[in-house]
Automatic annotation (TrEMBL):
Protein name (database record): Succinate-semialdehyde dehydrogenase/glutarate-semialdehyde dehydrogenase
Keyword Secreted: no
Domain Aldehyde dehydrogenase positions: 16-475
Keyword entries, A-Z: Oxidoreductase
Biological source species: Pseudonocardia kunmingensis
SUPFAM superfamilies: ALDH-like
Pfam families on file: Aldedh (PF00171)
């Protein structure tokens, strides 16, 4: 492995700093429960300095041609690719994601940056036929302004990459607060952009007490938009904080993806691939397939195979290439898994696999399947965001659709069937921002990704991902 990690710190106005205060927080390796670094936290003065830097840098960055902005982003993407192994190790060390998955995450993060670099050049407006001769009516898409961004810990390279490249590619400046649990991958992105020639102040990265940081950034009138990925509870709080200054907000919030396994599906084949998809990143993925509605004729076979495969997963040190699942990110996730399992047991539900902590240092939970769940169980209503799935047998598809749609979330959904009529019925009826049929792929850099209802507002990725950081101006003249 070549390369070194940047020092843990803040990046404000083109300078690396430990901030003006003396508060810091330990960064932990969840696979060992040991501290792996000390992260300095921003003071109110540091946040103000970041706000000023983003505001001051905006006019020149806005005036920079999209071609030049794209060049800087593409150069940075190349540097991230060169440094992939170092960054992947940082992901695994701070999050516990198996190294193999961490490497794949870097590849996707790079693709996001490349997509935004290209798409920023296509901020097309349109000409609208006028009612009168000699009048030209047109629209243009302009950069929104300085942006505040908040990224969580579960995809510590991809999510910051999406927010940074989307904002910068559209011509905005950004103050980003990545997750304090997993700071290093975002700092690598900063270093790559700095090395690629990004002007000072265009990107600023701060860490701190999350509520205090969002209070300050979202109250600032000079911040024109915000982008957040995380829970619905926090996202709606941030919407409130941004409301008095009428900020344009993109919210990627929690999901709880239903999966429909229809009578014509092969239950063993679906279970085999489902275990891999569900337990990826220890299930800490907002699009994780985790509520399985399985036709009653297939339910028993599906549960047996899923449980067998889940129990056989090798859980352990995420740096070990033979390991298939690492720890969860924090003890909070272990507690959440324990609570969901206890509720299931108290209702007499079948714990077909797992259902317990893995006894070793660190925050490990065994891959778990709760089978035969009805709508009253906690697991039927609360997104696990961990290595856990639930099955519910159904006889009539419409009953399963009603059950799936009754939750306020609508992020991803999956369907396994070749019955065209049933697939069409599902793709029409499901409240979900992304529906995948006979595959588990929910989003790519070039496809729009976002939720309905409590799963969020706006989109990341695709053409829509740039629009989140743009405003539309209508101009008409004679
Ligand atoms: P959380 O919403 O509390 O935290 C997510 C991120 O938001 C963290 O990085 C945190 O630093 C930040 N945050 C928390 N409070 C904040 C505030 N007041 N202002 C600004 N930022 C703040 O979620 P969690 O408890 O860490 O994770 C579990 C839940 O979060 C899951 O149930 C899942 O729904 C959701 N989640 C979703 C995604 C996603 O990709 N959509 C990612 C991570 C977490």
């Amino acid at each position: 492995m070549s390369g070194t990690d940047p020092d843990l710190g803040l990046f404000i106005a083109g300078r690396w700093t430990h901030g003006s205060g003396n508060r810091s927080v330990a960064v932990q390796n969840p696979a060992t429960a040991r501290a792996v670094g000390e992260l300095p936290l921003a003071t109110a003065d540091d946040l103000d300095a970041a706000l000023t830097a983003a505001t001051d840098a905006f006019p020149a960055w806005r005036a920079t041609s999209p071609v030049r902005r794209g060049e800087i982003l593409r150069t940075a993407a190349g540097l991230v690719r060169e440094r992939a192994e170092t960054i992947a190790h940082a992901i695994t060390r701070e999050l516990g994601k198996p190294l193999r998955e961490a490497r794949a995450e870097i590849g996707t993060a790079v693709e996001h940056i490349e997509w935004a670099a290209e798409e920023g050049r296509r901020a097309y407006g349109r000409v609208i036929p006028s009612r009168e001769p000699g009048v030209l009516q047109s629209t243009r898409r302009e950069p929104l302004g300085p942006i505040a961004g908040f990224a969580p810990w579960n995809a510590p390279a991809i999510t910051p990459a999406r927010k940074i490249s989307g904002a910068l590619g559209a011509g905005c400046t950004l103050v980003l607060k990545p997750a304090e649990e997993t700071p290093t991958p975002a700092l690598h992105l900063v270093a790559a952009l700095e090395d690629a020639g990004l002007p000072p102040g265009v990107l600023n990265v701060v860490f701190g007490d999350p509520a205090a940081v969002s209070d300050r950034l979202l109250a600032a009138p000079q911040i024109m938009g915000a982008t957040f990925t995380g829970s619905t509870a926090v996202g709606t709080l941030l919407l409130g904080k941004g409301a008095p200054t009428a900020k344009k907000m993109t919210m990627e919030l929690g999901g709880y993806a239903p999966v429909f396994v229809l009578p014509d599906a092969d239950p063993e084949a679906v279970a085999d691939s489902a275990v891999v998809a569900t337990m990826r990143n220890s299930g800490q993925v907002c699009t994780s397939p985790s509520r399985f509605y399985v036709h009653a004729d297939l339910h028993e076979r599906f549960v047996a195979r899923f449980a067998e495969r889940a129990a056989a997963l090798r859980v352990g040190d995420p740096f070990d290439d033979t390991v298939q699942m690492g720890p969860v990110a924090t003890e909070a996730r272990v507690s959440a898994m324990a609570e969901l399992t206890a509720d299931a047991r108290s209702r007499g539900l079948t714990v077909a696999a797992g259902g317990h902590r893995v006894e070793r240092d660190g925050s490990f939970w065994a891959p778990t399947l709760l089978a035969g769940v009805d709508d009253d169980a906690m697991i039927a209503n609360v997104e696990p965001f961990g290595p856990m799935a639930a099955t519910t047998p159904f006889h009539h598809l419409d009953d399963a659709i009603i059950s799936a749609n009754r939750l306020p979330f609508g992020l991803a959904a999956y369907v396994w069937s070749n019955d065209l009529a049933a697939v069409t019925r599902l793709t029409d009826a499901l409240d979900a921002g992304s529906i995948s049929v006979n595959r588990w792929q929910a989003s790519l850099p070039e496809t729009p990704f976002g939720g309905m209802g409590a799963s969020g507002l706006g989109m990341e990725g695709g053409i829509e991902g740039l629009e989140a950081f743009q405003r539309v101006k209508y101009v008409n003249h004679r």
